[in-house]
Specification:
188 residues; flat; Sigma_54_int; Helicase, Ruva Protein, domain 3
Length: 188
């Protein structure tokens, strides 16, 4: 059995891998996509590792909260299955007996990475197609600003389950300013 994460066809063309060796080892090639492309496998593997580490560390951790599962699913897993296993081993070592894995039990850098991806805004999503007539720069930038502000306000309200005071605290503004911004951006 032979495994690699390299593009052997490309390496043969570059002369850095022997073609005859390639044909010897590629009897039944199997390609496994990276973990981030196999979303359905993430929770399956995570639950398997929790079971495995429950036995290894003699614990009875009951699995993941819904929020922790969402973080696991949203994370990009640059280290693939090894990273998943190592993170869960670390979490399980630190986890108390009989508890559920919560978002705060997952590594801070992992949670931060997911939050960063969640809040990324792609400017291209807001740009209209440029016609030969051009566009009004001022109107365009005002529209983009209003759209982004509306999304930020909506996200804060969603995270606070519609409670304006909590949403205002998340955004570090007063409740009055939140309501004023909602009106200003056509949300009320």
């Amino acid at each position: 059995m032979f495994a690699t994460n390299k593009d052997l066809s490309k390496m043969i063309k570059e002369g850095s891998f022997r073609e005859d060796l390639f044909y010897r080892i590629s009897v039944v090639p199997i390609t496994i996509p990276p973990l981030r492309e196999r979303g359905e496998d993430i929770l399956l593997l995570a639950r398997h590792y929790v079971e495995e580490f429950n036995k290894k560390f003699m614990k009875k951790v009951g699995g993941f909260s819904r929020e922790a599962e969402q973080i696991l699913m949203a994370y990009s897993w640059p280290g693939n299955v090894r990273e998943l296993k190592n993170i869960l081993e670390r979490v399980m070592i630190l986890q108390n007996m009989g508890t559920t894995i919560m978002p705060e039990n997952l590594p801070a850098e992992m949670r931060a990475s997911v939050e960063k991806e969640r809040f990324q805004i792609h400017v291209d999503d807001f740009l209209p197609d440029l016609s030969s007539e051009g566009m009004d720069y001022t109107a365009l930038t005002e529209n983009i600003t209003r759209t982004i502000k509306s999304r930020i306000l909506s996200r804060a309200l969603e995270m606070s389950h519609g409670k304006k005071m909590e949403a205002a605290k998340l955004l570090r503004i007063s409740r009055y300013k939140l309501i004023r911004e909602q009106k200003k951006n056509g949300m009320v």
